[in-house]
């Protein structure tokens, strides 16, 4: 409530039957709404939901024509101690103008071979640079969720934006605020990503998490010394963080800068990004 997340307050009140709670709140004690990044500010043309083979093939063809894409994943949080983590529910893949939100659960149930084949064309491609934030945690979660699929056992051309800006605080939202002038509304991160259909707010959140990576990367690539982040990396140096090949989400291979390694990450039941 103090952070101004009125939507989350409403959700928790409903979950825990706190009917009288909101009546006790003094509206003047609630801070004015923080400005968050919106999709229209990123000039996106399409958010495309993909849950059948025809759409998956179309999305794959589009993505194969891109040099750089942003990738993110969402899964339902599980707070029960000792329980297995939830399967990754969706994978978002963003190009400059479009975001494809792939229903992994549905496609894995209906067309696992097609899903594995299409994602292999993207994730194993050495000609497509895949951007992420805290990327290895997502990759571990994907491998844990869909270990039967070969597409999640090998990756080519990865760049974890988190490693380029190690000093940035506040996660991806904090980095977006420093680079783009507005952060991300993360209140929907722990919502139920297995519900279908996803709400418009969930779709916007998912699309933003992937699309913002493209815009941050554009800034990194175009600025020899990013002014928005103190101690930013040079235009030449960011290339040294690219991981050319990685198998089974273990230690990266063929890294240009050997001393830069993945941070240790374990499979967890809720997202850390």
What does this structure look like?
The protein has two domains: 1-33, no CATH class; 34-247, 2-Layer Sandwich (Nucleotidyltransferase, domain 5). The two termini are 21 Å apart. Strands 1-4-3-2-5-6-7 form a seven-stranded mixed β-sheet, with helices on both faces. It is 33% helix and 15% strand. It has helices at residues 6-15, 53-64, 104-110, 112-123, 135-145, 161-164, 171-180, 200-222, and strands at residues 46-50, 68-75, 88-94, 98-103, 129-132, 154-160, 243-247. The chain has eight helices and seven strands. Mean pLDDT is 83; it is low at 27-32, 224-228, 230-236 and 254-273. It has 273 residues and is α/β, with parallel strands linked by helices.
Topology:
Elements: H1 6-15, E1 46-50, H2 53-64, E2 68-75, E3 88-94, E4 98-103, H3 104-110, H4 112-123, E5 129-132, H5 135-145, E6 154-160, H6 161-164, H7 171-180, H8 200-222, E7 243-247
Parallel strand pairs: 1-4, 2-5, 5-6
Antiparallel strand pairs: 2-3, 3-4, 6-7
Helix pairs in contact: 2-4, 3-4, 7-8
- State the distance separating the first and last CA atoms: 21 Å
Q: Return the domain count.
A: 2
CATH superfamily of the largest domain: Ribonuclease H-like superfamily/Ribonuclease H
Instruction: Provide the CATH topology of the largest domain.
Output: Nucleotidyltransferase, domain 5
Q: Provide the low-confidence segments as ranges.
A: 27-32, 224-228, 230-236, 254-273
Nutshell version of this structure?
With 273 residues, this protein is α/β, with parallel strands linked by helices. Helices cover 33% and strands 15% of the residues. It has two domains: 1-33, no CATH class; 34-247, Ribonuclease H-like superfamily/Ribonuclease H (Nucleotidyltransferase, domain 5), CATH 3.30.420.
